[in-house]
Amino acid sequence: MSSASRSALPAAVEKGDLMPLRSENHAAAAIVDPQLALPVTMRRPGVVPGAAPRGQENAEKTKPRLRLDHVTVHFGKRERPAISDVSLSIAAGEFVALLGPSGCGKSTLLNIFAGFRAPSAGRVYLDETPHRGPSAQCGVVFQKHSLFPWMSVIENVAFGPRRLGLRDPLGIARDLLDMVGLADVAHAWPSSLSGGMQQRVGIARALATRPPVLLMDEPFGALDAQTRSLMQEELLAIWERLRPTVVFVTHDIEEAILLADKVVVMETLPGHIAREISVPFPRPRALDVVSHPDFVELRREIADVIRTEARKVFR
Q1: What domains lie within the chain, and their CATH numbers?
Q2: pLDDT by residue (tens digit) across 112-144?
Q3: Quick check: 66 and 112 in contact, CB under 8 A?
Q4: How large is the angle between the packed helices 225-242 and 195-207, nearest 10 degrees?
Q5: 200 with 238: CB under 8 angstroms?
Q6: Whole-angstrom Cα distance, residue 141 to residue 220?
Q7: N or C: which end of the chain has fewer CB within 10 A?
């Protein structure tokens, strides 16, 4: 972010403190959906509110940013739960991919993290505080970009900072559009952009208010293979720069391994965690890592787990 934009931020933001939120219900959610409002929290990336003294930094880093404690979700009168007894801990700044066959509950878990759905049993924690609804600390990017069609690109990105009352929301938007390579289409209408460009605007809008958690539900699923590859590279660069905690839902094994620090493979009927797999490849991670023999072997291993789970649906 440029020095001009930094000087435009409130003093509390510069210190790493959270801005007070004066909104109600879903207006507190940092989401990319025209059905819900977007006032959100602004904070310096990687800084936890009430940051610990330097001597406690390592202890703070080990605290989970997100945690599920024996979470179960029932839908209506279905005999089986959609998710059963799921416990999962995600550290601050960690990139976690949720992977599994259709119907295993990946998107349901994401909605739990976002606060859009309450668990039928168990508890959800955000920074070790009970998480009971949409939060300004969680940004959400959906598979469909969901931009406001009546707003220009830059106004879409500036929407959250403006609703929060931050100074120079357009300056903040310009910086984010420059980061995602869309500064030259700032005043275009969303409908005039390609699918990949629309998703980049959606990601910029989610990041404009710097939520410490970014939840992504198959954001590249509808893109062609070439655009998807470019978007993966773009997301890796953005994550390296801002280091939010990311939960990324995908059906693509290669995408999960390429992007994530940890891949959570889910089983189905009911949804449950089958395995948590740490990705061994160092960062920054280049796209050519997909041809490494260890990458190929890990992809095969995960594919075997998912194939076993997918067969359950056809029995």
Answers
A1: 3-45+62-279+288-312 (3.40.50.300)
A2: 999 999 999 999 999 999 998 888 788 889 888
A3: no
A4: 20
A5: no
A6: 10
A7: C
Residue whose tokens read 């992977």: 99
Mean per-residue pLDDT over the chain, rounded = 81
Range scoring the smallest mean pLDDT among 28-37, 119-128, 295-304: 28-37
3-class SS string, the chain: CCHHHHHHCCHHHHCCCCCCCCCCHHHHCEECCCCCCCCCCCCCCCCCCCCCCHHHHHHHHHCEEEEEEEEEECCCCCCCCCEEEEEEEEECCCEEEEECCCCCCHHHHHHHHHCCCCCCEEEEEECCEECCCCCCCEEEECCCCCCCCCCCHHHHHHHHHHHHCCCCHHHHHHHHHHHCCCHHHCCCCHHHCCHHHHHHHHHHHHHCCCCCEEEEECCCCCCCHHHHHHHHHHHHHHHHHHCCEEEEEECCHHHHHHHCCEEEEEECCCEEEEEEEECCCCCCCCHHHHHCHHHHHHHHHHHHHHHHHHHHCCC
More confident of the two residues 113 and 79:
113
Summarised one tens digit per residue, pLDDT across range 187-217 is 999 999 998 899 899 999 988 888 899 999 9
pLDDT band at 63 (very low <50, low <70, confident <90, very high): confident
Q: Which tokens go with 11?
A: 């003093």
